[in-house]
Each structure stands twice: as structure tokens, then as C-alpha cells.
Design a protein that fits this description.
Largest sheet: 8 strands, antiparallel, barrel
CATH architecture of the largest domain: 3-Layer(aba) Sandwich
Distance between the termini: 87 Å
CATH class of the largest domain: Alpha Beta
Strand content: 15-25%
Shape: globular
CATH superfamily of the largest domain: DD-peptidase/beta-lactamase superfamily
Strand order of the largest sheet: 16-17-18-19-20-21-22-23
């Protein structure tokens, strides 16, 4: 017995000593609560005051536990309720996409779906149109490479009772907006793609996405607050704001019609459990949501815009810090809420930042994650992608590129020119100098210097962000990595600035015509001359003016919520009335010319000009899908 006892004590001491040694060895790399407090608190206070952000939650995990959790500012400004990461429910927007990807990977483990299978094999009530007979797969959906048209119209509802099921949205979307490019060839962030992946989960399991998530993700991960169904009455739900005219203005909640793309609300400390699982072989406190091999597949490079870029996994974006540390991340923005989840597998470190207002410049969430990463020791091996080409030919990239984002079909097609921006790329000797309004910039024009990394790949000298260039079908393209791809400046008549000038220039002509008619009537009244009856010109000008005012005040702002029938079918048909009046005026003018050869030529030509202008403007609106009947 003594021998057994002695051996047992020795083994116990040896085991305990080994654990202690391991812990001691890890303390050099570990982040302490004190370190994080000293780094983050002054930083958050400074940014929140400067950017007018009322509240922020920051949660940091390491290994299998939360090592830092703190709220800053207010979840409800009016009631002065503080942000509490362990109690406040916050919306995280597109972070939902990562959990949708995890749910898809669960079904893959069970053999219920395959990543390379045509998704139409899982759909029953409708099918996804094919681009040149090429099928779309789950791999394409989870890497944003399905080639789907940009989703803008009716993505969300302004109230819960106006929301529609994902199936209804997808049927309408795919009927009016078929795929626009070959699957697997180009990254283009897609809410409909993620929403479609979420709906496929429902098709395969016969369950709602909310019910599936509760059973298979939220439950095992101990996330009782998590839901894809927004509860207005939840007293713990944070409010979101925008800062206007010296005060915080509350932003109304929206209700996504594609829950799998961005509907998640959750307590930040609970969402940290998901980060822990992804960093610990798919396990949280003994509950496995995924196998280790599946987690590795999610985190692996599944698509990249350039061989020298980390690319994307499934539901996770791969990047490297300035000193070469691999990071996995996803961001989310909805109704003023701005969130970011960043994982650093090398240190089993997870970072979650959620704010209830957006930053006007560099996002607060990025500044926080960058500050935490700087606390980590540099890796021994640097990222091999930093090796610059020996003799880069920079002149080939020097040209003007135009960003015109928007759908190619359906409502919102006009966004392609309404927010068009040019980027001037200049050869600066050993670097490229790019001037423009950058997607993640300050909102105003900036000039940035880019250093060659590899052939066609460049790194921003200040921020480290990557861009790439490639040529396709004789046209040069510029890609903001994990962002958007834009092309060389198009011909004059296709440039966003030209199209906007046509829309605004002719559009302003109509109220000017009304003003002139009013002034002429007043002058005739003063001179006591007989008033002329309002003719075709006044009718046409009034109709177009009413339509354009409605488009500016209602149409552009409400497109994301979809249009009621009175607007989509009725109000948007007004230009057709103006066109009909113009045709009638043209017919009358021709007849009058035949009957009255003494009519002044300038009057006749003025009428013809009005007819051409009216019909041309109606066709312009029709081509850009601004009317009740669409060109595409």
C-alpha cells in the first residue's frame, strides 16, 4: 500500500507539475486583463467621444475562457442604461453568416448536403436560374462566388408584420434578378447568397432556420439570448443611433427577409462561446458543434482573388496582420449596429467588438482589434506573400477605374450610376498612387500609396490593406481584396457621372418649365391679358416633376424595404402618362403644320424638342428600371 501510495503521489505531482509548467510557459504569450484594460479603456473613450458612438461592448477569449469583457457607454441613451456584455442584447448583422456557414457544415458532416452539389437538387418549390448552364453550389454560396446579382430591393421590412419568409423573397428575387456571372470566378459579397444557404438548411431539415439554430448551435453553445427573430419588447435590447445636429437620433429596427444573412441578436458574452468553439476544435465546454476536420475546412482557404492573398473560408475571411499573424474574421452592420469577430488561431484568441453606432472614419471595431493584436508577440516566420516582385511593370496599371455598384436587373439598377466613383491610378516610380473615395475610407477623396507585393498585388503603405489588378477580355480590373471589383473607366455615355448628369439635368428642366409657365401667367395677369389654357408642355412638366420628387423623397430611401403596390405599379407609371401626352403633342403638331403653314417655325421646333425630350427621358427611366415596367 505504501508503494502504491508513493507511486500515486509521484504521478500526481508529475502530472500537476506538467500542467503548471505548461501554464507558466503560456503566460509569456497570454494577454492579461490588466493589459487589455490599460490598452482598451483610453482608446475606446477617445474614439467613442470623437466619433459620437454611445455604446460599445468588447469581449476577448483565450483558450476556453473569456479573459476580458467590458461595456463602454450606453445601450439606451435616453434611459442612461449602460452597455453590459453579459446582459445587453445587441444586433450583430452579418456575423450571422458565419453561423449559417457552421450550420451548413453540420449538415455536410451528416451527409445531408455536399459542397459541390448543384443547389437546385435541394430546392422543391423553385429553382435558381443558371448562368450559361453552370450550376451554383454551396461552396459558391459560402464563398460569395455564386455570381448572383447584387441584392438591394426588399432585403428587409420596416416592421415585423411586413416581413416575408425567405422563400417568398428568394422566389421574387430570382425571378427578376438572375445570376450575372460565371460561378466560382469572382468574389462579390452577397446577402442573397447567404440567405439562400440559410433557406437550403430549412429545405434539407424540414425545420425553420431559427428552430434549427436553437437546437444545433444556440443550445449546445449556451446562447439562450440568441435569436434570428427580433423581439421589440425585449427590455435588454440595445438601441442604435446616428449623431445629427448635436444629439443622438434613434434608428428604427429593420426586419431582414433573409434571416441567415444578418438577423442575429445576442448577448456579446454568449456569442463569445461560438468563438471559443471555432478556436478549440469545434467544442465548447465539452459540447461539440463541429468536428475538428470540419472546423479546419471552414477556416481553410476556399477561394482567393489572387494567389498571394489569404482569401476566404466558409463564413470566415482570412487575413494576416502586418507582422504576419493569420486572422479569421467577419463583420456585421445593421441599423447602426457595427460588429466584428476576429479569431487568431495561433494564440487561440478571439475578439468581439459590437457598437450601437457607426464610425465616420476608420471603424472603431478595426482600431480595437488592431490594438489587441499589437499586444501579441510577432511570429517567427513572416508571411511569404510580402516578397516584392523584382522588376514590377507599374505603368500597365496606370489608368482610371470606375466604381458603379448596384444590381444589373430589377429595382435599384440606377444605384450603379447614382453612387459612381472614379479611382485614378498613377505610376509613382516604385509605387502606385491611387486617388479616390475608398470603400472603407473617410467618405471623402483620399490619396494612398501602394507598395508592390507580387505581380498584380499591392499593399497600402499605411493600413496594410491589399488590392490586386488583373485583365479580363482585354479590360483591366481593380479588386479591393474581400471587397469589390471595378473596371476601367467606361465610354463617356456609360460613365456614372454622365448618366447622373442626364438624370439630374433633364430632371431639373421640368420644374424650370413650370416656373417659366407660372411667371408668364403672372405677367399676363398683371397686363390683364387673356390667360392661355395649360397645354401639353405644362402637363408633361408637372407629371415628371411630381414623379422625380417622389423618387428622391421616397423611392431611393425605401428600395431596401420594397415598394407597396401604389408606388410600384401606380406612381412609377406616371412617366408613361407624360410620354403619352408627348406622343399626342407630336401628332397634333404634325397635323397643325399641314393645316397652318404660317405657324412660327420656332414654336413648332420647340414642340418637337419637347416630344423628343419627354420620350427620351421616359426611355432613360425605363432602361434603368425606375418605372413600373423594367427593361431588365
Amino acid at each position: 500500500m505504501k508503494s502504491v501510495l508513493i507511486v500515486s503521489v509521484i504521478l500526481w505531482m508529475g502530472t500537476f507539475g506538467t500542467v503548471s509548467a505548461a501554464q507558466a510557459a503560456g503566460t509569456d504569450d497570454a494577454l492579461t486583463q490588466e493589459q487589455l484594460e490599460e490598452t482598451l479603456t483610453p482608446l475606446l473613450n477617445k474614439i467613442m467621444e470623437a466619433d459620437h458612438i454611445p455604446g460599445t461592448a468588447v469581449v476577448v477569449t483565450e483558450g476556453e475562457r473569456i479573459v476580458f469583457s467590458k461595456g463602454y457607454g450606453y445601450a439606451d441613451v435616453g434611459k442612461q442604461l449602460p452597455v453590459d456584455p453579459g446582459h445587453t442584447v445587441m444586433r450583430v448583422g452579418s456575423l450571422t453568416k458565419s453561423m449559417t456557414a457552421a450550420a451548413v457544415m453540420q449538415l455536410k458532416e451528416q451527409g445531408k448536403v455536399a459542397m459541390d452539389q448543384d443547389i437546385n437538387t435541394y430546392l422543391t418549390n423553385f429553382k435558381v436560374p443558371l448562368y450559361h448552364s453552370l450550376p451554383i453550389t454551396l461552396h459558391h454560396l459560402l464563398t460569395h462566388t455564386a455570381g448572383l446579382d447584387e441584392g438591394v430591393y426588399h432585403l428587409a421590412a420596416p416592421s415585423a408584420d411586413k416581413a416575408v419568409p425567405a422563400e417568398t423573397f428568394l422566389q421574387q428575387y430570382l425571378a427578376t434578378q438572375p445570376p450575372v456571372r460565371e460561378p466560382g470566378t469572382e468574389y462579390a459579397y452577397s446577402n442573397p447568397g447567404a440567405g439562400l444557404a440559410g433557406f437550403l438548411i430549412e429545405q434539407v431539415t424540414g425545420s425553420t432556420l431559427e428552430a434549427y439554430m436553437q437546437r444545433n448551435l444556440f443550445g449546445p453553445l449556451q446562447m439562450p439570448s440568441a435569436s434570428l427573430i427580433h423581439q421589440d419588447s425585449d427590455p435588454d435590447m440595445a438601441k442604435s443611433y446616428q449623431y445629427e445636429k448635436g444629439s443622438f437620433q434613434e434608428i428604427p429596427y429593420s426586419y431582414p427577409n433573409l434571416p441567415g444573412a444578418g438577423a442575429l441578436s445576442v448577448i456579446p458574452d454568449e456569442l463569445a462561446h461560438y468563438m471559443i468553439a471555432l478556436l478549440n476544435e469545434g467544442s465548447y465546454q465539452g459540447q461539440h458543434i463541429l468536428k475538428q476536420a470540419t472546423v479546419e475546412e471552414m477556416q481553410a482557404r476556399q477561394f482567393t482573388e489572387h494567389p498571394g492573398v489569404e482569401g476566404v473560408g466558409y463564413g470566415l475571411f482570412r487575413n494576416r496582420t502586418g507582422n504576419g499573424i493569420l486572422t479569421l474574421s467577419h463583420t456585421g452592420d445593421i441599423d447602426g449596429f457595427a460588429a466584428k469577430m476576429q479569431l487568431i488561431p495561433e494564440h487561440k484568441l478571439g475578439i468581439l467588438v459590437v457598437s450601437n453606432a457607426e464610425s465616420p472614419g476608420k471603424p472603431l471595431r478595426d482600431q480595437v482589434t488592431d490594438a489587441i493584436v499589437r499586444l501579441l508577440p510577432a511570429p517567427q516566420i513572416q508571411d511569404p506573400a510580402v516578397a516584392a516582385p523584382s522588376t514590377p511593370d507599374l505603368e500597365q496599371y496606370a489608368r482610371t477605374y470606375t466604381m458603379g455598384l448596384g444590381p444589373q436587373h430589377g429595382w435599384g439598377k440606377w444605384f450603379r450610376w447614382l453612387g459612381g466613383k472614379n479611382f485614378e491610378v498613377q505610376n509613382a516610380g516604385e509605387t502606385l498612387r491611387i486617388t479616390g473615395v475608398f470603400p472603407e475610407g473617410t467618405g471623402s477623396e483620399e490619396s494612398k500609396t501602394y507598395i508592390p507585393v507580387r505581380e498584380g498585388l499591392f499593399r497600402d503603405k499605411e493600413s496594410g490593406e491589399l488590392i490586386s489588378f488583373h485583365q479580363q477580355a482585354g479590360v483591366w480590373k481593380l479588386t479591393f481584396i474581400q471587397g469589390v471589383t471595378i473596371e476601367e473607366k467606361p465610354a463617356f455615355l456609360q460613365q456614372p457621372s454622365t448618366l447622373l448628369a442626364i438624370y439630374a439635368g433633364i430632371g431639373l428642366a421640368w420644374p424650370v418649365m413650370i416656373l417659366i409657365a407660372v411667371i408668364r401667367s403672372l405677367l399676363r395677369l398683371i397686363r390683364r391679358k387673356k390667360q392661355q389654357r395649360l397645354g401639353h408642355a405644362a402637363f408633361i412638366a408637372v407629371i415628371f416633376s411630381i414623379y422625380l420628387i417622389g423618387q428622391l423623397l421616397y423611392g431611393n430611401s425605401q428600395v431596401i424595404f420594397g415598394y407597396p403596390a401604389w408606388y410600384a405599379l401606380g406612381f412609377s407609371s406616371l412617366p408613361f402618362l407624360a410620354a403619352a401626352a408627348a406622343i399626342h403633342l407630336g401628332i397634333q403638331t404634325v397635323r397643325h403644320q399641314q393645316q397652318n403653314t404660317d405657324e412660327k417655325r420656332r414654336v413648332r421646333y420647340g414642340r418637337y424638342l419637347l416630344v423628343v425630350m419627354s420620350l427620351g427621358y421616359t426611355f432613360f427611366l425605363y432602361y434603368w428600371n425606375m418605372l413600373s415596367v423594367h427593361f431588365s
